[in-house]
């Protein structure tokens, strides 16, 4: 049972949908659910508001927390369309298992999400390139300083109308290949969507930004040789016609947009490989004129072209700094399926 607590107080919606940015506005309601004494309970849709926590709450000290990111779209026909939501809650349970967090009932929280979206449908922006970003999270809420898994948790879903993740929109990004800092190791938490993974990435991200880059391209922690991901995106390269993405070795997030791209490319006859790909291989291909395209994929970033990579002080331009044709096709196809402009042959979209 989900209790709904209504409010008459409604926030002003952002007037200019072209200026939404990412994660700056939040809607009128949120979904919450508590865990204690071995069970999830008190599922509610309630007015969005700050929540008070004791400063000894576990998540503040030991980062026992996970999250997800997915999107809902509204088109000119008035359809509300959610992209592959089951995949997110499946992955959330995999992250939960890694972080000693009790599993959620995926069907139940999906129903909660749909109920929340029905209530908030007017918040879903309709301008091209916009969506309602959905952020489900679980945080450890037991008040205790001992280093143990918490016995109490808060699950919540908040919603944010968004435009493009990068301030420069679809313009090709500039990546700094990071050869000192490390994001994740095999056996660590890199493949879980846990909050600490993002904290770990901040230092390198800040240093890269100061040098004028958009993001850090992470290499494997052991050899600093194999490409892993970008933190907010999985990576793809088109190397002499072959579309290559790093295989999921345990330290890479199993992205849902990544998986959707692989499925789309395969279904359309492209040669796609999930394999280890070294930075040396990519640079060699660039020097030989065989690095046709590079792009990142993610819920927030969608399909984001990469125009340049710097490695050990040398710049490597990709496709003349322009978005490539496969990147463009994937962007158009994924966003077309999401918004209903194109058919949904895989049945990825849940229509509300
Ligand atoms: C997403 O794409 O949903 C992410 O979680 C990436 C980032 C905004 C943290």
Description of the structure:
The chain is globular, with a radius of gyration of 20 Å. It has helices at 58-62, 85-98, 106-119, 195-210, 256-267, 279-287, 325-339, and strands at 3-4, 29-36, 39-47, 65-67, 70-74, 80-83, 131-140, 153-162, 173-178, 215-218, 234-239, 242-245, 272-274, 291-298, 302-311, 314-317, 349-351. The chain starts with a strand and ends with a strand. It is 24% helix and 28% strand. With 352 residues, the chain is α+β, with helices and mostly antiparallel strands. 43% of the residues are buried. The protein has 2 domains: 3-162, D-amino Acid Aminotransferase, Chain A, domain 1 (2-Layer Sandwich); 173-338, D-amino Acid Aminotransferase, subunit A, domain 2 (D-amino Acid Aminotransferase, Chain A, domain 2, Alpha-Beta Barrel). The chain contains 7 helices and 17 strands. The strands form 2 sheets. Strands 1, 2, 3, 4, 5, 6, 7, 8 and 17 form a 9-stranded mixed beta sheet that branches. Strands 9, 10, 11, 12, 13, 14, 15 and 16 form an 8-stranded mixed beta sheet that branches. The structure holds 2-OXO-4-methylpentanoic acid. 2-OXO-4-methylpentanoic acid binds next to loops. The site of 2-OXO-4-methylpentanoic acid (COI) has 6 residues, from loops.
């Amino acid at each position: 049972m989900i209790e709904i607590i209504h409010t008459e107080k409604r926030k002003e919606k952002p007037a200019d949908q072209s200026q939404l940015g990412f994660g700056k506005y939040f809607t009128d309601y949120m979904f919450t659910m508590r865990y204690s004494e071995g069970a999830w309970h008190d599922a509610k849709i309630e007015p969005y508001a700050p929540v008070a926590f004791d400063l000894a709450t576990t998540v503040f000290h030991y980062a026992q927390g996970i999250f997800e990111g997915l999107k809902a779209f509204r088109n000119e026909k008035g359809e509300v369309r959610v992209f592959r939501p089951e995949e997110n809650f499946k992955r959330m349970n995999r992250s939960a298992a890694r972080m000693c967090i009790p599993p959620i009932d995926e069907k139940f929280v999906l129903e909660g999400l749909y109920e929340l979206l029905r209530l908030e449908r007017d918040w879903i922006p309709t301008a091209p390139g916009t969506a309602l970003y959905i952020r489900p999270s679980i945080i450890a809420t037991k008040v205790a300083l001992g280093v143990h898994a918490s016995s109490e948790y808060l699950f919540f879903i908040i919603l944010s109308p968004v435009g493009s993740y990068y301030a420069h929109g679809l313009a090709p990004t500039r990546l700094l290949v990071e050869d000192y800092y490390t994001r994740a190791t095999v056996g660590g938490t890199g493949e879980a969507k846990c909050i600490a993974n993002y904290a770990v990435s901040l230092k390198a991200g800040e240093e890269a930004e100061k040098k004028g880059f958009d993001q850090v391209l992470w290499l494997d922690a052991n050899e600093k040789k194999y490409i892993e991901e970008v933190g907010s995106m999985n990576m793809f390269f088109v190397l002499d016609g072959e579309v290559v993405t790093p295989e999921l070795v345990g330290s890479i997030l199993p992205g849902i947009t990544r998986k959707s791209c692989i499925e789309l490319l395969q279904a359309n006859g492209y040669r796609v490989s999930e394999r280890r790909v070294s930075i040396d291989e990519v640079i060699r291909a660039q020097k030989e004129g065989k690095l046709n395209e590079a792009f990142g994929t993610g819920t927030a970033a969608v399909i984001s072209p990469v125009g340049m990579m710097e490695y050990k002080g040398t710049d490597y331009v990709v496709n003349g700094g322009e978005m490539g044709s496969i990147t463009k096709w994937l962007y158009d196809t994924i966003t077309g399926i999401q918004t209903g402009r194109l058919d949904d042959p895989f049945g990825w979209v849940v229509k509300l």
